[in-house]
Amino acid sequence: MYYKFSGFAQRLVGATAAAAYNPQGLKPIVSTESPAPIFGTTSKLAPDFPATDSYLGKNKVPDLQKIFQKADGLPVHLKRGVPDRLLYRTTMALTIGGTIYCLVALYMASQPRQQK
Questions:
Q1: Closest Cα to residue 64, out of 79, 50, 78, 75?
Q2: β-strands 2-6, 11-15: how paired?
Q3: Where do transmembrane segments lie in this chain (predicted)?
Q4: Given 3-state DSSP classes, what are the helix, strand and coil percentages for the chain, each rounded to the nearest 5?
Q5: Which of 15, 71, 16 is nearest to 5 (CA)?
Q6: Which end of the chain is more exposed for a tag (fewer CB within 10 A), N or C?
Q7: Strand partners, 4
Q8: pTM confidence score
């Protein structure tokens, strides 16, 4: 199943493949004429490379949709397990540490200097 963002409902809604890959009513522009050649020679296809898009790899979107849409009570930023928890906790530690550092620096800046 395909999804697209609904501007009216402000959430993802089911859609057809054409609507999902061409959001907001945009349609692909397909030229019926071949463009005029820029140079005098024609371009040649490389015979060594396959004509398919095999280099793109496997489509991971359906697997990720299953993970993120599972109703397990976890927030989205923690659904992928240990790496997400590690990043989250590191971010929280740096945020709390930075806040404490700023408060200490503010306290030290607010104290008058001692005269010798």
A1: 79
A2: antiparallel
A3: 86-109
A4: 45, 10, 45
A5: 15
A6: C
A7: 13
A8: 0.44
